[in-house]
Amino acid sequence: MKREPLVFFAFGMIFGFPLGYMIANLGDRAEAPPPQAVAQGSTEGTAAAVPPPSAPPIDPNEVRALESLASREKNNVKVRVELANLLMDHASFDDAIRWYKEALALEPSNNDIMVDMGACLVSTGKPGEALALFDAALKRDPNHKKALFNKGVALMSTGRPKEAVSLWEDLIRRYPDDPQLRGLKEQIEQVRATLPGRAS
Fold this sequence. Notes:
Distance between the termini: 50 Å
CATH architecture: Alpha Horseshoe
CATH topology: Serine Threonine Protein Phosphatase 5, Tetratricopeptide repeat
Strand order of the largest sheet: 1-2
Shape: elongated
Largest sheet: 2 strands, antiparallel
Oligomer: single chain
CATH superfamily: Tetratricopeptide repeat domain
Radius of gyration: 17 Å
Number of domains: 1
Helix content: 40-55%
Structural class: mainly alpha
Order of helices and strands: EEHHHHHHHH
């Protein structure tokens, strides 16, 4: 089955407006859910992730089969990533992080694994840890689109909206025709409206 290379997965409200994060290989969905499908953020200001409305309940048999395969094949990166993606797709972020960590231990230079794990960390209220992963990925590949987008989300989550806006504007300049980034300009304007010192 063909996996979508990039999708938006709505994860909550930051500064009162919808935001999504971009991840790689997140299940076999034909289309991405809209960024507006959001849930209220936590009391600490970080957002609580929710699965897209069209996602079916996670199949425990599929999880058990993948876990069994992973336990038998200790060096199989692919099965660990597949299991982590499945768990992430259903908002089981702590469990997904565990499997991304195992995959990353086997393949430490894999930027996509690093970025997906970072997106899970943002969703579990650990944007600082996520930023370290995004920066590591960007050090190896400064044009890694998902790392750039998700770094902006993490910056927003750590109270650095100006930096997030600057990064996202640069991302749009690099990829002006990317349909995945179509709604980002509007989100940037909404962030700008919250910044202190903005002229009315």
